[in-house]
Specification:
single chain, Rossmann fold, 2 domains, 14 helices, six-stranded parallel β-sheet, seven-stranded parallel β-sheet, alpha/beta
Length: 383
């Protein structure tokens, strides 16, 4: 490992929002400290957008080694080899000092190339289960930043590298949690926010409207539903809400998510890493339905972490019926103190300074303060 002042950080991230959002937050923090940043992703990665237009984006080949048949795996392996060659050539030209991998197979070639070129390597894991790409790369990392105090899948040999930073979220969402949760009064409106993650969740389109129709009239007249509805089901869902007299705002995508979270009294959603981190940062209670086909069931682990802290409730998709959901919604919405307590507990799980803490790890300035014992999930840092 060559020792030098860190001036240039290369971020390697998959193209999904779960990888890109925290990568973007880190980039913003590093740029604010005068560090140059470059993003390396694959063809799906759209970059960091106009807010960070100065960050150059490079795309390399990448493919997965899991899922699909033998031909697909072989093609994925060839793509990774090609991506490694491209990344090695790129890193030599960039003269970077650190490579930060945010998971997803698109991060693998760049992280491996950085390791072989003698650069400092930092991984960030957003979920409560170490992802397969990060699992592959962990033995080669200098530090592994994690979002939860308990993370499954980390080898005993790698535990000393682990630093608890949290999962960076947008500053606009952190700002929501700095204001007290507004406890609804007996006649106040109630806002239910229903989100399905970057891919949406069709089961919410089928179950949530039917559950709402089963609520007592007194609750329905106060209720406003803001729901993410992907595909061609918006009119079907809207008609159910119209018939039962519930105000509704249905969108395929919420471009103003911070405002939606700020207005929400309760959130129904999946349990992706970004969703869980944003609920905690904003201090909003969640009813979480983990995606049952998530790799290594990591969404269930994410949801359990927030639920065990009192900030959310978990409903497995296999048990999600309109009747059960109506019972839960009726109980929660009619009990403002219960929502307020969950909001407080969610906020207590937040790491509002996650981007700064992660930047300290990247720049080797954390001094081990965030070290945690992954075996028992307890922080080793002094209180």
């Amino acid at each position: 490992m060559r020792q030098r002042t860190i001036r240039h950080v290369v971020i390697a991230a998959g193209g999904t929002g779960g990888h890109m959002f925290p990568a973007q937050a880190l980039a913003r923090e590093l740029i604010g400290r005068g560090i140059a940043v470059t993003l390396v992703t694959d063809r799906r990665g759209a970059g960091f957008g106009p807010d960070l237009s100065t960050v150059a984006t490079h795309r390399i080949s990448a493919g997965a080694l899991s899922g699909g048949g033998l031909v697909r795996k072989m093609r994925g392996g060839l793509d990774l080899v090609l991506g490694y060659v491209q990344a090695r050539r790129l890193l030599r030209c960039l003269n970077g000092d650190v490579v930060v991998g945010f998971g997803g197979y698109p991060s693998v070639p760049t992280v491996l190339a950085g390791r072989h070129l003698g650069l400092r390597v930092v991984l960030h894991e957003q979920n409560a289960v170490l992802g397969r790409a990060n699992r592959l790369l962990a033995p080669r990392a200098d530090a592994i930043a994690v979002s939860f105090a308990g993370v499954a899948g980390i080898r005993p040999a790698d535990r000393s590298k682990v630093r608890l930073t949290g999962n960076p979220v947008r500053p606009e969402i952190v700002a929501i949690g700095q204001r007290p949760y507004a406890v609804p009064g007996p006649d106040d409106p109630l806002c239910l926010l229903v989100i399905g993650g970057s891919q949406g969740a069709r089961i919410f389109n089928r179950v949530v409207p039917k559950a709402v129709t089963r609520l007592p009239t007194a609750l329905r007249t106060r209720l406003a539903v803001c729901q993410q509805v992907r595909g061609d089901e918006i009119e079907t869902v809207a008609e159910i809400y119209r018939v039962c007299g519930v105000r509704h705002d249905l969108r395929a995508f919420f471009a103003d998510m911070p405002a939606r979270l700020a207005a929400a009294n309760l959130v129904i959603g999946r349990a992706g890493a970004s969703t869980v981190a944003e609920l905690a940062a904003a201090g909003r209670p969640g009813l979480l339905v983990p995606y049952p086909h998530a790799t290594d069931d990591h969404q269930s682990a994410n949801a359990r972490s927030l639920a065990e802290a009192g900030g959310a409730w978990v409903l497995p998709q296999a048990t999600l019926t309109p009747e059960l959901l109506a019972e839960r919604l009726g109980s929660f919405l009619a009990n403002p103190s219960l929502l307020a307590r969950a909001a407080h507990c969610a906020r207590a799980c937040a790491h509002p300074d996650a981007a700064a803490r992660l930047a300290d790890v990247v720049l080797a300035r954390d001094n081990g303060d965030g070290a945690i014992d992954i075996k028992n999930g307890n922080s080793e840092a002094a209180a």
